[in-house]
Predict the 3D structure of the following.
Amino acid sequence: MEAVAVPAELREADEAAISAIGLEALVAKAGYALAMGVRRAAGRCVGLRVVVLIGPGLNGADGRAAAKVLRNFGATVLEVEVGAPVLPACDVVVDAAFGTGCSRPFAPPLLTGSPLIVAADLPSGLDATTGVVHGRSLKADRTVTFGATKPGLLFQEGRALAGVVEVATLDLTLKTAVERVTERDLELLPPLSSERHKWTVAVGVVAGSPGMYGAPSLVAAAALHTGAGMACVATSATELPLAREAVLSPLPLTEWSTLATTTFARCGSVIIGPGIGRAEDLREKLTALLLACEQAVVLDADALHLLGPVSELSSILSRRSSTAPVVLLPHDGEYTSLFGSSPGTDRLEAARALAAASGATVLLKGPTTVVAPPDGGMAYVVNGNPSNLATAGSGDVLAGICGAMLARNDLPGSAARTVALAARLHAVAAALGPRQGLVSSDLPAYVAEVLGGGANHGG
């Protein structure tokens, strides 16, 4: 996993580095890294025409240092101060105007022609925490970011403005509270034990109602394709076409708590909510089941509406005798219903706030997914979620993946780390499918392909 650093963490690391090696040496490191980023973007230095847009702070100093290195490598470099209305024709523009300290709207100069844009640290005007643009930004082809990736490069407008992001660590010592989950992390997942049996990883599911029977089918299929040896599904559906191996049990008329000691007794996790409907009498049944479950619990979809608002959900969770984690999987609408306000632009803070208020781990869905634990510990981001995941049922698949991963007892770290890995698996699986026309019933097979190593998944 890769560190993601907010401005305060980077300032602390910068101060420590300056104390150790001096400001001039740190700027020289950043300038060299930036110059090498320009060379990689353009494919050469000799004969390259470069304009460096210079700001008044450290970003400007980094730009000047890069200009010196590029000249030494054979480029023709012109340094232009911020405020120039138009930049002259060139092959590459280095945007070193403003970095993480930008606090006022930025108005970039006009470009002549179509040069490559290489941003120093982040595109000028971009909020390093939220990804919102103050004023306007030059859309970068490449961003050489210093120390660690900033959240602003992963969220909101920053995702599209940053281009290819490369991290120049500058040997900074960072203490961060956020990590980015990569495809490499999936390759490091331990294989399931050769001593396993079908109950070693078993998942319980409460899902489906008339007109919504696709939900339990997708959840169970996803859990099985993620490695669960058994899926026990309590539902009013009479068959699950995508998961014929699942064991079906009828939902009790009243005492849903009995499921915990009967249908789900040998399960390592229980997934509750997809497609169950929102009938008023379900709230009491769900509460009883949630209190009775000793296993890890995933709450999704209708369960989030039925058990909210967050103050009431928190009260229920505080009465659980089990210390096993509870995980919430809201999209923005479900977040708003639970929390009483939308996630807003700072999605890291939004996920942390709901986790703290509810006492549960929160996986906030979006183009960049955020996972936050209730204790304020390490949070995780999963960026690059493909647009083909915006299809009916993909959330049910994610719930099944999360349930199967939580049911394993061999994965290190917190529940937040586990479901963040599940979210990355969900995204990588979707990337194997068609860019348009992916249907959720195809996703479980792609999940198994990723886990089984049936294709080369570098990155």
Q: What stands out?
A: The chain has two domains: 2-176, 183-452.
